[in-house]
Amino acid sequence: MKQQRGKLGIREYVSIAIMMVGLKATEETPARLYNMAQNAAWMIPLLSAVFFFIPLFLLIKTMSLFKGENLFYVVQKLLGRYFGFFVCLVIFVLSSFAFSFDTRDYSNIIRAFYFNTTPLLVLFAILMTICAYGAKKGIQHIGSVSYLIIFYVIISFIVALLLSTQDSNIQALLPIWGAGKLAILKQSSQRISMFAEFFMLTMLVPYLKSNKEFRKGTWIAYFCVSIQTSVATLFFICLMDQSLGGMGYPFHTTIRYISLGSYIPNIEIFFFVIWIMGVFIRFAAFLYIIALMFGHIFKIKDFEYLIPLLATLYLLIGNMPNNPIEVAQELKPLIGTISGPVFSAIALLLWLSALLKGEFKHAKNKNSM
Amino acid sequence: MQKTRTVCKFLLIVVIAFSLTGCWDREEMEDKSYVIGLGIDRSYHKGKIKVTMLLANPEVGSQQGGGGSTEKPREIVSFDANDIIAAKVTANSVVSRIISYDLLKIIVVSEEFAKDPKFYNILNDVVFDKEIRMNAYLAVSKEKAAKYFLKNKPRMETRPHKYFQYMIDHGIENGLIPDSTLFRFFKTTDGGADLFLAMNTSAVREKHPKFKGEDEYFAGQLNASGEFDDTQFIGSAVFRNGVMIGKLTGQETSMVNILDDTTNMSDFFLDIPNPFPGKRKSFAVRVIKKENNQVKMDLKGSRPKIFISIPLKFEIMSNPSRIDFAKRKNQEVLKKQIASHFKTELEKFLKKTQKELKGAPYPLSFYARKYFGTNQEFEKFNWTKSYLKAEISVYPEVEIIDFGKSPKKNLKVEK
């Protein structure tokens, strides 16, 4: 039962990308941003997007030299066999930890707000099973499902934010510079890990129809996601003002707070169902990409069979931290602060070595011939 | 082979169906008791609080038509506990069903305990609880909260959640009580710059309340007679940094609601001194507030100046002097009268907040924020202190949109 290699369209790719990065606005990210820059927190996603634009742009430029090859192929080609292997391994390990702690974090949210008595391990295991099942189906299936639900996810998100305006105060955004201009700049440079998933998404290049589509899709998704995160943070600030800093998961607190008049007071379940579908897609895609990395590093062709195994491994890793705070306040930021700079550095390194090796000239010559 | 696969798929569906019950979080309606009202009092034991729970029976009223349950709609339990969260378990030694805060509608605190600095700490547990929603209301009762729930026996709405919902919703619409959700409470207290108003309620009527002007009552003072509920929702309790420091009457609360753009007040009725000759000294108007206030500030000088202009629409509901409002002159007189009445009342009230309450009773500091570039500058400005010396002027923009049903009925009848 060999899976045939279909191709991803640009819309599927964009929806996967939006799901993978955009969902960050629904976890603790806005609260963490608020703690960094107070009421100017909504600027951070925009500014970090500007900062991360440079490495991402260089990476995509380098990738375009090798038509239809994925990130790891490019890394090994440019950095040599041994050093390339090492870099690939670093990327793989970092993404693995990010995946384990992210899934654990989402299980924590589900347990905290919706299933209070169910043991965490059970919820976590169910989440992993579904993601593994989704990932096993292949990226084409993930892509089409994500395109199916992306509109529901976005619309429900917008509806939730709009409903929250009933009780929000736009003046909470003022003073406009919040903690100060310098602080905002400093914090935004530290939050580039917010977009680190785009780095991993370059693994999917071979699945896209053309390099141009990949480039276009990435920029569309990048633009949407940075705006989305910023707007979400802005709405949360307007709604909660200074309480946002102490809040664990603002999105879920918001959907529990908002209501449709006194006849339909408690509507969080609508948003929860759509949100959880988005979460499944996000982690299925994530898991698939990691399996792809693993397969590439260790030269395993049918890497799809590894997915259940990897899922189990990540379940065990993710289950190691004792409590949700450890995950949300220590481990995730730790991975974030490492992965952001490391990924940017790798992108720069790739571009530099391509430049020094004269690959750009090669490509030009090829084109002119 | 095909058969085995079909069977396997079928089995999988059956297994998935089992998970629909929610695994460990399976809940039975019959087995649940929802806390609608939560009372917090000071306890006689050191370091403890007295918790009162008003529990609703979800089975009552849920069935249409006949055959409904004959069980009682509510249960009330009071006991001493360390905090409100662990109290859930303690209450189970008395209540047969699983207790849940999921539908908590109102938290009632006795005035005595609200003035205790410990109160904010106790209430802060609410933020950590996973069941309590932040749109529950905070109310302050004159008597002990335990007594309040016992005394409160609604006649028309026996289901407690509906009773509180209607009572509070209509009170907020009429502007007599503030929109005091827990969410607003924590938002204001975390902000720290302004005062918070919680609704004032009481289920014990004062024996011989003095007669006062329209709505100038605290809860429990309205001298109504007849057959009705003893519970009254009127006026508000003022909190600074989570500790109660004073009280406002119903009328003052409605003034705050006029000034505050963030509440959901729709429209309310008011008596205004009659500018025309006649025996009756006041006439009734309906005040409608649809647009937001304009607040301008001049914060440069040693005494900050605050200018508030309030767009208000009025409908004249009575005409005791039988004035012909078709004449422009009479319209102008009326308009002027309303504007000056509002101006003096509001300015007097704001002065009172500066002198007695020492803080703005609604998020006025938000308007000051735009004059500063960063949070540090705003903190340096020190809003709480500056507000006390601020010079506040109020400009009501009066627009009369309706002069009543029969504007032209003339003086003839009277003489």
Automatic annotation (TrEMBL), chain A:
Q: How is it placed in the membrane, per its record?
A: Multi-pass membrane protein
Please give the name of this protein: GerAB/ArcD/ProY family transporter
Record field: transmembrane = 40-60, 81-101, 113-133, 145-164, 220-240, 269-291, 303-322, 334-356
Q: Which family does it belong to?
A: Belongs to the amino acid-polyamine-organocation (APC) superfamily. Spore germination protein (SGP) (TC 2.A.3.9) family.
Keywords, A to Z?
Germination, Membrane, Transmembrane, Transmembrane helix, Transport
Q: Name one GO biological process term.
A: spore germination
Specify the superkingdom: Bacteria
Q: Which InterPro entries match?
A: Spore_GerAB
Question: What's in the GO CC field?
Answer: membrane
One family name in Pfam for this protein:
Spore_permease
Q: Where in the cell is it found?
A: Membrane
Automatic annotation (TrEMBL), chain B:
Against InterPro entries, the record matches this protein to:
GerAC_N (IPR057336), Spore_GerAC-like (IPR008844), Spore_GerAC-like_C (IPR046953), Spore_GerAC_C_sf (IPR038501)
Q: Where in the cell is it found?
A: Membrane
Q: What biological-process terms (Gene Ontology) are attached?
A: spore germination
User: What keywords does the record list, in alphabetical order?
Assistant: Germination, Lipoprotein, Membrane, Palmitate, Signal
Q: Which domain of life is it from?
A: Bacteria
Q: Which residues form the Spore germination protein N-terminal domain?
A: 25-197
Keyword Cell membrane part of the UniProt annotation: no
What residue stretches are annotated with the Spore germination GerAC-like C-terminal domain? 235-404
What coarse category fits the chief subcellular location reported for this protein?
A: membrane
The answer to whether keyword Signal applies is yes
Q: Name one GO cellular component term.
A: membrane
Membrane topology annotation: Lipid-anchor
What does the similarity note say?
A: Belongs to the GerABKC lipoprotein family.
NCBIfam families for the chain = spore_ger_x_C
The entry's protein name is: Ger(X)C family spore germination protein
